[in-house]
């Protein structure tokens, strides 16, 4: 951080800009310090909850995921000082109100299309799994909760909401964990197959490189008479 | 006709020359009653023509000619034009003057005259030899394509003034003769062939007279001939078929085809033969293919070898016909095989239902006798192999049909796959068939070669060879540890033959098992020396088995408490073994092996019983040496092992009244009952086997088997994918799948989903990564 501050000073930019930056840096740092864990340089779960409350965001809202995403949170309830300060100063934002406004805008942009949303989506897997490298998958229940959270506000997915409810049931029944590969493939499947033709899934081809869980899902749909044969 | 003038005409006089040679020409062509040509006439004519052509004084005519020809520049021009013109006119008149004699059929006349005319034309050609060589050659080389050498000039005149005007008549009469010949009348075939040949000669290429040209033959004869032939045989085949049916029709065709071809060879040009052949094939065979196909299945069913072979020969040049026959053979074999195996299944079931004995209940899932099943498969194969030889000359297409059909029904049939989607039982039944032969108790009288041949044959078509290997190994393991093999030579003989067909890797585990048996034998001898003769244990046969080679896994449920009287023996084995292999880890598999126990429970004066018992049962009996009554819990405590195992092994003793439960209870583990060994055991037999009635652990073994197979397949697929990707770096999904399928083919039919899971496993392990467009990338 000190390095960053001195960079700003030595940059020799116009005094107003430096002044603003300095002001915002101070304000952002003050906000971080307010929520951070007294024993460390990290905002932990309690701090996160108060921060969210002060921002007026429900933790059960997808907005909270966008917040974690932009601040590069490695796992639930954990924000690091550098990520926090860098991001907000970069964004030129220094008050809770501005933060909320900025967050809301970013969020709206992210959920607008699959192309932008996929960044947030793919980030969430690592966020849920946590930084442990030994760990390769996340629990089916956790995956389902986060899928619900993520997809709730995506207008481009409303056509197939019934299909992902069925997917949740299927995943739950299978009892298997969700790997990064499966997590990422599912979104592709969602966009390419489920949302394009939710009734017949006509873009599905079992010979393609879909993850085996998707093949089994389609088979499961057929076995349970949930899939009309395509014309 | 006056005799030709004796004196040669003046060389330069055209009319004189012409008048001089004309009578000679008539002789040459055979006009006026064909009196023959003397050499004098011939020589005179030749000389007159020569003189005329070599005369250089006739400049006026010469310049006239050359002006007409537009060749002013040359001072030296050749003579010939006028006399050529006269000859041309003369030939025309001559040809036009020819007429048939009274009642002579036109064709006969045509042929007769043609023969004479062509001879005459050749002589004429010689008479005008000088002119041919100079004037004609010059004219032609100047591009005058309507000037011919005299022989061809004669032919052209024949064609234009005799042949073409009468073509319809000539043709009709030729076809008439041919039809009569087809109707088995005797006709003068020479007439046909000369007439047809005349058309060949009449075909001139005006640009190159030496080049044979079949234009006249093709347009005036061939086309119509083919039409007429097609029509004739179309009618004949239709009426014959409707009157006599397919079998006789094929006999007819078999005769008709070569007949027609031999006949036609007399008058057809080489180039038409193929066309004729195609036409005949189309009219006689292709157009009636449907009727023959319809009969084909019936013939197969009634084993009409001779007829089927005939059909095969008839279709021989018709690739699509053979394909159809081959495809239908394949489906026929499949249907037949399905029927026969269904019958075998039904007959086994009815046999079982009628006898309703214990063997039927013991193994409800493998009802059929493996040998009967394997024989059924082999018999069907043999039957159709014979059909291949007898009917289809072992044509590769039909071999393929049999292979494809076998690949299907060897794996999928009523017995192998009783319910849809279940895995094929053929590999297991095949292994059981081998087991039945190799067991010591067998009464099989088959020869080793026969069994080995059957194994190889069935194995060739079995999709999942790895399953066979697994079952074979399990059964072999049982034979080996139970000392139940018929002979080592047979075992090795069969194994050798299996190795011939398969890769060494495939049977490497089995080979290792035999090695283990041998080294265990040596160990046994050494231990025997160490222990000495005075031990509780009479004859101890320890087997040291390499853990990944043998189909046995250590089972925690079988953790036995070893009583001190046995412990020392075990210790000596362990000590002896670790002596030579210190780094190896030994685990006792108490769930395998059996013991013979001498039991002094007989009536006084009778010899002691010999009980065959499992390891767990042995510990139970040993406990009763110390006390004759135990509670269930106490006995269990002494023996060890899991409760379900303990109960399963205790049950036969209670059932066969060696141990009494008092008071009797529904449950062996009833804490209110006690277990007491009888003082005097009652049995008619001296040897009692308590092992065979231990509750079957088959289910568990099946699970183990499929788990082992699944595991080894997973490893195989993973290794295969890594191998491919290491070499290729990136690969399309489908390409990768296909390559893996191909690699696995020799061992098992890989399922798509299993390959995908293996890929996913590797993605997860970061050996592979997905890249855009459904491809994978190898991460080094």
Percentage of residues in helical conformation of chain A: 55-70%
Strand element count of chain B: 9
**How many domains of chain B?**
5
CATH class of the largest domain in chain B: Mainly Alpha
**Low-confidence regions of chain A:** 1-17
Largest interface, C-beta closer than 8 angstroms, per-chain residues? A-B, 15 and 14 residues
Strand order of the largest sheet of chain B: 1-2-6
- The quaternary state of the protein chains shown equals heterodimer
SS-based structural class of chain B? Answer: mainly alpha
- N-to-C SSE string of chain A, H for helix and E for strand: HHEHHEHHHEHHEHH
Largest sheet properties of chain A: 2 strands, antiparallel
Global geometry of chain B: elongated
The total count of helices of chain A amounts to 11
Instruction: Report the span from N to C terminus of chain A.
Output: 62 Å
Return residue spans of chain B where pLDDT drops below 50 for at least 5 consecutive residues.
Answer: 58-68, 70-75, 357-366
Q: How would a crystallographer describe the biggest sheet of chain B?
A: 3 strands, mixed
Give the percentage of residues in beta strands of chain A: under 5%
Q: Specify the helix fraction band of chain B.
A: 55-70%
- The separation of the N and C termini of chain B measures 109 Å
What is the CATH homologous superfamily assignment of the largest domain in chain B?
Cullin Repeats
